[in-house]
Specification:
It is a single chain. This protein has about 100 residues and is α+β, with helices and mostly antiparallel strands. Helix content is about 30%, strand content about 35%. The protein has helices at about 15-30, 65-70, 75, and strands at about 5-10, 35-45, 55-60, 80-90. Strands 2-3-1-4 form a four-stranded antiparallel beta sheet. The longest helix is centred in the first third of the chain and has 17 residues, at about 15-30. The N and C termini lie far apart (about 35 Å).
Length: about 100
């Protein structure tokens, strides 16, 4: 039975060159996994600052499935990400597609 999870990544502090190099591959990977990664985005202290972390809302059967999925992300494979945290997510209403840009 699929559930919703929040996956929070923290970027390594020195990883901006990795982010720039693998961004296109990361976006293509997210597009290919859009049925599972419902929302993905960066976290920044200020809008103009470099990303320091990211979150995904993921549809999966288990916490282990979320981690296994994220293992294939080019940002994870390339070493951009440091720790990952997985949280169960519950909402009383459907998730809207979010994009503030």
């Amino acid at each position: 039975m699929s559930r919703l999870f929040i996956l929070r990544f923290t970027d390594r502090p020195d990883a901006l060159p990795i982010r720039q190099r693998y961004m296109a591959a990361h976006v293509a990977w997210l597009d290919a996994h859009a049925d599972e990664v419902l929302v993905a985005g960066t976290l920044r202290v200020n809008p103009e600052d470099a990303a320091v972390a990211a979150i995904w809302i993921v549809k999966a059967d288990s916490r282990e499935a979320v981690l296994a999925l994220s293992d294939g992300d080019p940002f994870w494979v390339s070493g951009l990400r440091a720790p990952r945290e997985v949280f169960h997510y519950r909402s009383p209403s459907p998730i809207p597609v979010l994009n503030a840009d």
